[in-house]
Amino acid sequence: MPIPAYKPPKRSSYDIVIVGGAVIGSSTAYWLSQRLGPGASVLVIERDSSYEFSSTALSTSAIRQQYSNPINVKISQFGIEFIRSFVERMTAFYTDEAPPDLGFREHGYLYCVSPEGVEAARDRVELQRSLGAHTVFLEPGPLKDRFPWLNVEDLGGGAWGARDEGWFDSMGMLNGLRRAARCSGVEYIDNAVTGLDVEESRVTTVHLSTGEAVRCGTLVNAAGPRAQQICAMAGLSIPVAPHKRYSFVFASETPIPGRMPNVIDLTGTFVRPEGELFLTGNTPLDNGPADYDDFAICHEEFEDCIWPALWHRIPDFEALKVKQCWTGHYEYNMLDHNGIVGFHPEIANFMFANGFSGHGLQQAPAVGRAVAELLVDGAFQTLDLTPFRYERIPLNEPFLEEAVI
């Protein structure tokens, strides 16, 4: 298939330039297009429109409400609503074919809880239920009754989200958002940002790898793991860097009966069904920042860490065979594992939408809507994401999220 010819920007100036066209950037573009209409002066710059190495494409594409912060619970609740209504929202933009069905698998999450962690887990469940989530805490006996294949001998119980949690098609969401934005007047180009001009505390010009330069009214940094690169071009800094996450798909000689949830072990290893196969991963032992282009797999993670954890928690996972594996990058916020959303206080037209630490896909619908509200209305109109403001970064005031995988 021939490579499409490069298309330069259609204009020399845009009201809004979004750097990064994966799910956060495209969600922002979608919500802006719905607010501003076909006359929107919005440019999305994506360095690789194949999305081969994007965090969106390489994610495990799951959504949960089991968080320790109320705002993260509410963000996911809107995410679920958006996923369930996705076909309806996209219908107007798919006149020649059916909109993508995100294939939501509502199997839930099951967090294994140590005996020492029971009180904190019960508190989190109570918080989530007070916000409308369907999480329940199961003591070891009822937990074993519900999931007889689970080893509960060293557990104090488990937190189970029976509804509104599961996994879905990440690229279906991205492709739908991108198509809807483009159909509504947003322009996308396949290019990379190489520099920013800042004059009188404002970003004025965006320089591209192909030599062009475009003026901008507002710049939105949605560059995912490369967020700090874009910040540095404006003389700014955020504690966001790419961290590798390894995913393995395996077959088991012994099937797991019933409706298996996404099981989160005490070790941080997770496992869930994928048809007749299973998807697993964990928090790698070598968990420092990675090079932006380093997507090498570490097979030892499966042999040395993941498999022993799986076998201990689910004894039927004695005989396994890896069928597929890949490496993705988290845009990891090293301060507090939460997103950074909002304007910079000094460079007043520089907008952050960064640092979601593995939660970006499930949080994209709400975050894109919130960024659009800031840009169009000057303030949050639906969910108040003020706790994600940039100002906490230089003050070193973490807004911590305990439930990080």
TrEMBL record:
InterPro entries, per database record: FAD-dep_OxRdtase, FAD/NAD-bd_sf
Gene Ontology terms: cellular component: cytoplasm
Domain FAD dependent oxidoreductase: 15-374
UniProt keyword Ribosomal protein present: no
Alphabetically ordered keywords of this record: Oxidoreductase
GO biological process: mitochondrial respiratory chain complex I assembly
Molecular-function GO term, any one: oxidoreductase activity
Classification via PANTHER family: FAD-DEPENDENT OXIDOREDUCTASE DOMAIN-CONTAINING PROTEIN 1, SARCOSINE DEHYDROGENASE-RELATED
Name recorded for this polypeptide: Glycine/D-amino acid oxidase
Organism of origin: Paracoccus isoporae
